[in-house]
Amino acid sequence: MYTPDPDLPAKPHHFMSKRLGISISLVLFVLVLLLSYALCSLQVDRSTQAILADKNRFLLSKIDTMQIRLQDWRRTMLEQTNTLALSESVRLFAADMAALPSDLLDKSSRTADPGSNSDQLSLLDQREYMQQLLADIAYQNNLDRIRMFLPDGRKIVDSASDAADNHDDDLLVRQAITSRTLSFGAIHKHDDHFALQAGAPLFEISGKDRPRVVGCLLLCFPMDAALTTILQDKESQLRLVDLFPDRSSVFLMREDALQQLPLRAGVAGAHSLDFKKRPAMAGGDDVYSLAFISSLPNTLMLVASLPAADIDREIFHKSMQIYAVGLLTSLGIGLLLAFGVSCLVGRAHRASAAYFKALYTVIRDQKQVLDSVNDSMRLGLVLFSATDGVRIFNPEFAKICGGIPQDELAGKSPRDLFPQEAADKLQAGIERKIKEPSFDGVELALPGTDGKEHLYRVSLYVFLDRQEQDAAKEAPLPGSVVAIFKDITRFRRQAQKAQ
User: Fold this and answer.
1) pTM check: above 0.85
2) Residues 486 and 454: beta-carbon distance below 8 Å
3) Which of 176, 288, 312, 418 could potentially form a cystine with 199 if both were Cys, beta carbons 3.0 to 4.6 Å apart?
4) Cα 166 vs. chain centroid, distance in angstroms?
5) Could you tell me if 412 and 390 are in contact, meaning their C-beta atoms sit under 8 angstroms apart?
């Protein structure tokens, strides 16, 4: 009876086992990569939405601030307009002038027809008194000009009789009389400053539910102070857009000076009210912006925006960090799976172990490269204990601390490392973070190695040592705080230059 050599089947079996182990390892590694990519993509989407939501909330706060400033100006403007438009003397004068024959409104007709009604001539004489009255009111309320018109659009009184009129004045008068509500024109250049005209209809004094319109007041308000107040900001790009027909323009602050620029072609119609990326309204690079149409005047649009390049750069860096962590995690998991499969295969265990050990060395080197990339970002990391001071830190934090040797940083408190003001502020932030986990962080001004003062954004995170907490169940320890120091001096200076 033939008996085969027991060593002969072992070789093909060993060969097939090795191929099977490699195939299974590759399949599992691909699955892990796909799963890791899907999870990282989901996390990138969440991070992107979180960043955009944070910017949206920031711009909403800027829009709210602009609305509050606009409401302050609107309140003063409405008080002045209502006081004059509801004055009985002004309304009676407009009603009497509207009842006069058209030929008597011209003073030359008085000389041509001396037999005119004496009451009518007396009313015409009051027009000079009304002109002086409106001039005094304009001077007292810091208005550029006040004019009175009849319902048919004819001007009867002008506080500045030597000033010229234009076509937009007639359009605004007709709009106010037709709509029977306060109407606004475009912000225009008046002498050496900006001004805004408002048309207020004048109603007859009667007990009717719908009184007749007997005239219209046209008031010219100076806008330089109001626009400067509304647009003053150092953290974002604030714009005020005048959407009055055929005169769309953008007002903004540049180098602390109020400027008027033409509205970019095709932007006004596409500029919705939601937060998104879009072309800048006055030209230039794209921005993430948020707009709001003012209710009064409804011809003004409030716009707050941030440079799209800065936000996109922040999103890109965050995405790269997520994918890098996902890649390292996938490699680590793939390594473990492959190592387990190779162990189950059996006979190629040692060779596979040596191979994966080399692969682990590559992964470690890649991690070191990633760590060096993170170090190049110049973030100072330190773990502050509530009782023991500095416990763990990186070299960048040692540079921030100045001339203190690294071997002497352990156990130091913030007051031992930084100037008193910055140390007190950081210590207060650490104590607050321990009590209020929702607290974000603080900003510190610290001297740099170049002899200049640097501004750091210090983000704080609560760190709980599980072993210490389990050992002190009856009297829990206050825990520790991780502080991340980020130099925002350059960013803040660039933002100030941009403003």
Assistant:
1) no
2) no
3) 176
4) 38
5) yes
Q: Nearest 5°: CA angle at 181, between 159 and 98?
A: 55
Euclidean distance between CA atoms 228 and 488, whole angstroms: 28
Q: Using CA atoms, how far apart are residues 287 and 252, in angstroms rounded to an integer?
A: 15
pLDDT for position 119: 61
Partners of residue 289 on adjacent β-strands:
276, 305
What's the rounded Cα separation, in Å, for the pair 173 and 377?
61
The pLDDT of residue 468: 55
What is the reported pLDDT for 9?
41
- The pLDDT of residue 361: 86
**What six digits make up the tokens of 45?**
């989407």
Cα–Cα dist 175/169, whole Å: 10
Which are the contacts of 388, defined by CB distance < 8 A and separation ≥ 6? Answer: 411
Which residue type does 392 have? I
Unique residue bearing structure tokens 């003073």: 107
State the distance between the two ends of the chain, measured CA to CA, in whole angstroms: 98
pLDDT at 106: 61
Report CA-CA distances (Å) from 353 to 13, 175, 342, 366.
Answer: 20, 86, 8, 20
Cα 62 versus chain centre, distance: 6
Q: Please give the pLDDT value at position 6.
A: 41
Let me know the angle formed at the C-alpha of 201 by 198 and 202, rounded to the nearest 5 degrees. 130
pLDDT at 117: 61
Buried b (16+ CB within 10 A) or exposed e, 309-339: ebbeeebeebbebbbbebbbebbebbbebbb
Nearest to 131 by CA among 141, 145, 143: 145
Q: Which amino acid is at 438?
A: S
* Per-block mean pLDDT, blocks of 10 residues, the chain (499 long): 39 53 78 88 93 93 92 92 91 86 58 54 78 91 92 89 78 92 89 91 86 93 93 87 80 88 69 79 86 84 91 93 88 77 63 73 78 67 84 84 80 86 88 86 86 87 69 56 89 85
Quick count: other Cβ atoms within 10 Å of Cβ 305? 23
Note the pLDDT of residue 108. 41
| Interatomic CA distance for residues 184 and 345, integer angstroms | 84
